[in-house]
Design a protein that fits this description.
Blueprint lengths: L1 H16 L6 H17 L3 H27 L1
Helix pairs in contact: 1-3, 2-3
Amino acid sequence: PHLSALYHSIREQNLYCSRENRTVSSYAINDHKLLLQAIRDKDRERAVQLLCDHIAHAKANMREGYVQFLK
């Protein structure tokens, strides 16, 4: 339950802060597809790198959306 609550909290913040950024959905869907493929291929190193890249990209979009919100 705690992990699920954390996920939903982060997801809600991400959606709120990045709602002005139209490219969020397209990059996120692609990131998730690539990550799932790496997991299916049992390529742990690639999966970890893809997840790190995805999180960094999401954080950047959240920051950008938050700055736009403050304007």
